[in-house]
Amino acid sequence: MLSKWISLGAASTSSESVKPRVLIITTEDTFSTTHNILEMESLRDELQQEKAAISRRSSFSSFLVLRLPPADVSQLARHRRLKEVLLEELDKHRLERVKSRVLFSGTHFQALFRIALSQFSKTIESPFDFITASRVDDPVDGSFEQHLCEFLYLGNQRYIPYTLLAPYVASCILLDAFPPKMHSK
Q1: pLDDT > 60? residue 184
Q2: How far apart are the first and last CA of the chain?
Q3: Phi, psi dihedrals of residue 30, rounded to the nearest 5°
Q4: CA 177 – CA 179 distance, rounded (Å)
Q5: Does 77 score more than 80 pLDDT?
Q6: Are 138 and 179 contacting, i.e. CB atoms less than 8 angstroms apart?
Q7: DSSP H helical segments within the chain, as ranges?
Q8: Apex CA 45: angle with CA 67 and CA 84, to 5°?
Q9: What is the largest CA-CA distance in the chain?
C-alpha cells in the first residue's frame, strides 16, 4: 500500500514539512528473537528503498518505525510508547503547520475537503492546490490589480504616506481572504 501511495506522488502542493508522516507499527509476537531481528532488517531495507522514492516524489515528510512489546505485557504498558510517539508526532506536526502558516480550522478543513473530494473524484494525477482551492467559492475579481493601482495612485496624488496606505491595503486583502461565515458559529 505504501508503495502505491509513493508511486502516485504528492497529493498536495504543501511544503515538505507539513506533508503526512508515516508510522509503521510492528509487534514482537513472533516465535524467535532471530526471526524478529531478520524481519526488522528486511523492513528497514524496504524502507530505505521507499525513502529514495519518497525523496523523488515528496509524498511524505517522515517515516517512523515503532515496535510494540510482546502481548504478554499489559495492554497499558504495551501501548504506552505508541501513545507517547503519537502525541509527540502530533505536537511536532502542529508546530510545523503553525510555522508554515497552514494550521487550518475545522471550517477550513470542511471547505477544503469538499473541494479536494470534488477534484480527486475527477483525477488523482494532479496535486491539490490549497491556495486555488481556498478561492473557489469566492474568486478574486479580475480587476483587482487595476483597483489596487488606482487606489495607490490616488493616495500618492493626495500625498498620503505609503505607511498609511499599505496597512489599509493589507487589511483589506486579509479580510477578503476569509470565506463568508468562516468565523461564525
Answers
A1: no
A2: 39
A3: -80, 175
A4: 6
A5: yes
A6: yes
A7: 2-8, 33-57, 75-99, 106-122, 130-134, 144-157, 162-177
A8: 25
A9: 84
